[in-house]
Amino acid sequence: MSLCLTKREADAVMSEIIVNKRLISDLKMLEHAPCMVHVHCVEHCLTLACSDAAKDVPYLHVTHYKNTLKNLYVHVNGSDVRQFKLEALQEIMNEPTLRLKDPISIRWLSMEGAVKTIQQCYGSIVAYLQSNEGRYTVGDDIAEGLLKEVTHFKFSVFTAILSDILSVIQLQSDLLD
Asked: Which SUPFAM superfamilies match (predicted)?
């Protein structure tokens, strides 16, 4: 029998230990204060509330916006050539030279970073998708579809609104951390 664990197994064991320690400490606290109520971390509650609220926004609920962000990220970051050409356009258009970020919706910091990057480099992203470099390469249909999505008025308006909202949520999250 081998005593060596893979990283995944070791992580699972460690998380189990952490959960068990927390449960034991919660039980000990309950012995001393039977009326105690267990409450999630406030920051986690904020994230859960925001996620639930986002379900009521049709453009977010259908994950249309998130899918567009993710597809744009995968398309550009999937090729060093595409990434280089986007960065070259950012320099030409005097926009900050930023790489697109992966929008992970369960992490507000990640989602905020992805939205802010799109907002700051919107012009160069559209120019790239309209250019020959964006359309006449591998994934040409993808670039065409992304151009259609990104130039739709809902995308730009939603990006601006979401950027403002996420910066406030991130500020609150930082304060609660």
From this structure: Ribonuclease H-like
For helices 64-77 and 140-150, the axis angle rounded to 10 degrees is 140
**Residue 1 banded pLDDT, cuts 50, 70, 90:** very low
* Average pLDDT score, the chain: 77
DSSP E strand stretches across 32-137: none
Helix (H) / strand (E) element for 138: namely none
Q: What's the rounded Cα separation, in Å, for the pair 66 and 106?
A: 11
Where residue 118 falls among pLDDT bands split at 50, 70, 90? very high
CA distance 44 to 42: 5
Q: For residues 66 and 49, what is the distance between their CA atoms, to the nearest angstrom?
A: 18
What confidence score (pLDDT) does residue 103 get?
82
Q: Take residue 134 and report the two structure tokens written for it.
A: 């964006």
Can you point out the beta strands (E) in 9-102? none
Find where tokens 């992966």 sit. 102
Its pTM stands at 0.68
The token pair that represents 86 in the structure block: 């986007």
Cβ partners under 8 Å of residue 121, min gap 6: 86, 90, 95, 96, 98, 100
> And the tokens for 28?
């000990």
User: Judging by beta carbons within 10 Å of its beta carbon (0-12, 13-18, 19+), is residue 151 exposed, middle or buried?
Assistant: middle
